[in-house]
Description:
Blueprint: E1 24-27, H1 29-38, H2 43-50, H3 54-62, E2 66-69, H4 70-80, E3 88-89
Antiparallel strand pairs: 1-2, 1-3
Helix pairs in contact: 1-3, 2-3, 2-4
Amino acid sequence: MNADQDIDWAQSSTQCAMPPPPHTFILDGHLLRQLRRQRGLSQEELADQAGISLTTVARLERQPHAPCRGWTLGRLARAVGENPTTMTLPRPSD
């Protein structure tokens, strides 16, 4: 699976939500959009500065609880000048 694909955590047999893998964080997508706009960046400009795809930026911003790899989170945080921990939400309990 690549970084641009959506992750479906629902198990088909039980329809229970599965927690994300340990190396994945839950990004506050709405906060990402707010920070990007405050800095006067388009999605394309943010994607270029972070070194990720425009598709990924758009996907993350659409989701209030967006699964995001640590590498991607770090690049986005650097691009908007924030600490990565301020952009994440608590992980769901197991």
